[in-house]
Amino acid sequence: MAGPSKLDALLDKLRATLGAAHVLTGADRSPFVVEGRTPDVVVFPGSVDEVVTAVQQAGAAGIPVLPWGGGTAAAVGPPPARGGLVLGLKRLDRLVEHEPGDLTVTAEAGLTLDALQAALRARGQWLSLDPPDAARATLGGLIAANASGPRRHLYGTVRDLLIGVTVVTADGTVVHGGGKVVKNVAGYDLPKLFVGSYGTLGIVVSATFKLRPLPEDERLVAVTFERLKDCGAAARAVLAGDLIPVAVEILDAAAGAPLGLGGVSLVVGFDGLREQVEAQASALAAMAASLGGRHATTLPPSAWARLAAAAREAFASPAAVMSLSVLPTTVSEMMEQGMEAARRRGLASAWAAHAGVGAVTAALAAEREASTVAAVLAEWRAMARAAGGHATLVWAPLAVKSEVPVWDDAGAAGRIMQRIKAQLDPNNVLNPGRFVAGI
């Protein structure tokens, strides 16, 4: 925590700049406590100029700045080592410009994804991202966490959809990167530098994305299997075939239960013209049946939003959640090995995967002993590494994080990232220690 005199002086400056109603202290800070760490102050700038001023004032006082969107990824990474200034972006929530003819939109970083989608739907378009908790997730937060969901199989992640960005750096400089058109080839692809950086390189204040027309129809088809091995084989058959799915998901019985699925399930999504969707859904059912699948059913539209968090939602209070990145061909094998590793220590687990891109999420049921949970997580990470992948501890209590590093060893890439951090934030103002390699 900052010294009383420095903090009091900073609070006076912030209230004068932002207005007292937008500077929170005392008990009002409680929604922004992360793993027992309470920020010194929480502020809500109402313009880019106010963001600049708040960052400069905090930097001059030697207080770290912790950018905050909707808080959906606030627990990812090590907790803050000290209080700091939480800089909330909820007041920067304007849709700046929508060009339907160009299929682009520019909006401020505090706008939630749900609010953006509602505005775009009125014009027959959408941003093809479907992360968990879209009602809270902000555009700036999506960029910072590179958040996505099942539809990434066909439509990609934030990196693929972001074409322009405006960022406030650690010294208060406003930087513009990219443009407002899809075909933009001028200069370095600066926007990608900030994607997935967890607010450690700059504070995103606005962004431009490329859009897609709304599909006429969309459908989620679930097929159950007796064995995970058979489900994995069916997923590989879908990926190798002529179907064009927007999502290919594998859920074990625990992850599928909240969706009403009984057993291991392959869930495949389609969108497009109604006749095409119908034909592809029928072809999937026939293909899956030939591989041992049964009970092909169409899931309700609400299932789309729940797929991204299926593993975590399997338990009311999970002991930990880990994401593993592996080759798509090894997904079902990784899931089987991971389940067995948990069972050997008496723990239940739930598994879900974006099978086509090798992104696996696993959750552990509640367990009193942090050491037992940590041992399972360490084994899961070792399995991912042995398969040529890596693992990230997405959520866990502090007692577990103290035994298992949140981020995997980034090797040479981590050293490059440290050099970039040193160039853009030499005084380590933005989210210090939050990201890979201690950045």
Please outline what is shown here.
The protein has 439 residues and is α+β, with helices and mostly antiparallel strands. The protein has 15 helices and 19 strands.
Strand order of the largest sheet: 15-12-14-13-17-18-16-19
Percentage of residues in helical conformation = 25-40%
Q: Helix- and strand-based class?
A: alpha+beta
Classified by CATH, the class of the largest domain is: Alpha Beta
> Mean pLDDT, as a whole number?
94
The residue ranges in which pLDDT falls below 50 over 5 or more consecutive positions are: none
Q: List how many beta strands DSSP finds.
A: 19
CATH architecture of the largest domain: 2-Layer Sandwich
Number of helices: 15
CA(first)-CA(last) distance: 20 Å
Count of individual domains = 4
Overall 3D shape:
globular
CATH topology type of the largest domain: Uridine Diphospho-n-acetylenolpyruvylglucosamine Reductase, domain 3
Gyration radius, to the nearest Å?
Answer: 22 Å
Tell me what portion of residues adopts beta-strand conformation: 15-25%
Major sheet: 8 strands, antiparallel
